[in-house]
Structure formats: C-alpha cells, structure tokens
Amino acid sequence: MARTQKNKATSGHLGLLKARLAKLRRELIEPKGGGGGGGEGFDVAKTGDARIGFVGFPSVGKSTLLSNLAGVYSEVAAYEFTTLTTVPGVIRYKGAKIQLLDLPGIIEGAKDGKGRGKQVIAVARTCSLIFIVLDVLKPLQHKKLIEHELEGFGIRLNQSPPNIGFRRKEKGGINLQTLVPQSELDIDLVKTILGEYKMHNADIVLRSDCTAEELIDVVEGNRVYIPCIYILNKIDQISIEELDIIYKVPHCVPISAHHKWNFDDLLEKMWEYLGLVRIGLVWGSSVKHQPQKVGKEHTLHDEDVVQVVKKV
Q: Which residues fall within 8 angstroms of residue 118, CB to CB, at 6 or more apart?
C-alpha cells in the first residue's frame, strides 16, 4: 500500500486493502478458544483509581523507574529481557491510588506474538495511561516501532474516538450523511469498505473530515483510545542543548530513572493526562438529595457528612 499513489482512482482499492488488513489484525486481538488466558504472570488485578502501563524495548529503564517511583523491586540488569512477567506497584499522588505495571520489554513483531508480545500489549489495552519508556540516545527509532506494534493491536495513542455516527440496520442500503466537507471519504469508498464486512445496510454520519482508517476503526468497534506519555530516559547521557530540544516535543518528559531526575514533572504530567476528578458527595441538611454532588464553593451545615471520591 505504501507504494500506491493516493488519488481518486486508487482510493477505493486502498480502502478495500485497509479493511482487509484490519480484519486480519482483529484475529490477533480477539482471544481464541482454549488459549488459557493471558499466561502466567500477566494477569494482574486492577486496583486503585487508575492503571499505568510501562511499555518499551528491553533495557530502557522501565524496572528502575518503577523501583524508584513506587519502591517496588523489579529485577534490574544491563542485559535484555530481565523482566519476564508483569511487575505491579502502587503510588499515591494527590490523594489518588495509582497502579503501575512494569511490562516485559517488547520487540519488533510483538503484535504477532514475538517475545510474548501479545500478552504484553493485551495488558496495555487495559491501562488508563501508557508510559512509553525510550532510551534518549535512540528515541525516534524505538518510538515508531512501538507505536506500530500498539496500533496493530488496536491501541490508539493520544487520539479521540472518530467523530462518526454508525448504525447497522436491516434494510434501506447505505445512507451517508456528511456534516462537513470530506477530503477522502465519499459514498463509493464507504460502500467499498462496508462491503468488505458484508454490511450493505447502515446509517453513517461524518461529523468531521474523516479518513478510511477512522471509519474502519468505528466498524471494527474494538479500538481503545489511551493517553500516552513518552518518557525519554537516561538524560544524564546527553547535553543541555539536546535536553532543551526534547522539552519542545509534544507528550514527552525527559528523566533519569537512575538519578531520579525530573520525577516531579513526570508526576504532574501523569496527573494531567489521567484526568482524574475529585467529586464531593454530601449527606445532610445543606443539600436536597442524599447524597448530592457539590462543588468546592458549597457551604456545609453542622453535622453534614462529606465524602470525597475520585473518578476518571
């Protein structure tokens, strides 16, 4: 597909190929019967208010980061594949209990099962936030490979779900409604993509300028949209000038896990990306309903009971 020129004449062919590729990838995401679950050491019960998964290539510092953030021992060594199972830890930050998961290092081809990659990425799909831990000396190479592996397993990083309305129906054909001008999708391409899924009756509403990939994601219905922070580790090995450049890269936080440098910035960005919200519930004479959600400006009465909870 990469060698095919994108134009009106080839858009239908490309859309068909993308739909077929998405169907094949779905087989990697959906568990097959008799598979025995996620495998020993990968099934970790969710605890706390949020879950963060550490994803990265072997020996980039994930275990050191977990140990220094959460005080949990995860075996650390200067050789690859030291961590072979999921190692959990917990931190408390601004009153929230946050679960951290040090996942085994993934390699190219993880989405196809190499290096137990399917189990690793399956755990990543359950996270509220993903930390992609990169070696600052080779960040772009690793970043692109990891993004490719996660994308192949249905994970969309730092993206919102496509603004597409989709509803299957029994009859009436394909009805396409576009609320804004479309640069890629038209009725013919939509019919081609849906035809690959043997869907011939559906209502589609495009509320923004959408791509074929976004329509396929909606049709597949198994995508997860997870915020992601790229952690560039080992900044003690680069210059101040290089560090200044890194600070300008979106979604990135430079750190040294070994020296515990810049952990404050990392935790603040973590809190921002998790989007946790504190809610006050009040029982008593100051509210009409028992309990009632209130804001911080609410005035309490004597003997009122307040519960502060957090939600994502």
A: 28, 110, 111, 112, 153
The answer to whether residue 7 scores a pLDDT higher than 80 is no
- pLDDT, one tens digit per residue, over 176-208 is 999 999 999 999 999 999 999 999 999 999 999
Query: How wide is the angle at C-alpha 52 spanned by C-alphas 266 and 248, nearest 5°?
Result: 35
Is pLDDT above 50 for 213?
yes
Could you give the residue range(s) of every CATH 3.40.50.300 domain in the chain?
Answer: 50-159+224-274
Distance CA 285, CA 302 (A): 8
Identify the pLDDT of residue 4.
53
Instruction: Say if strands 305-311 and 277-283 run parallel, antiparallel, or are unpaired.
Output: antiparallel
50-159+224-274: in CATH 3.30.420.40:
no
Residue with structure tokens 């917990």? 90
Please tell me the distance from the alpha carbon of residue 281 to that of residue 311, in angstroms, as a whole number. 13
**97: number of Cβ within 10 Å:** 13
Task: Please spell the DSSP secondary structure of 209-242, one letter per residue.
Answer: ---HHHHHHHHH---EEE-EEEEEE-GGGS-HHH
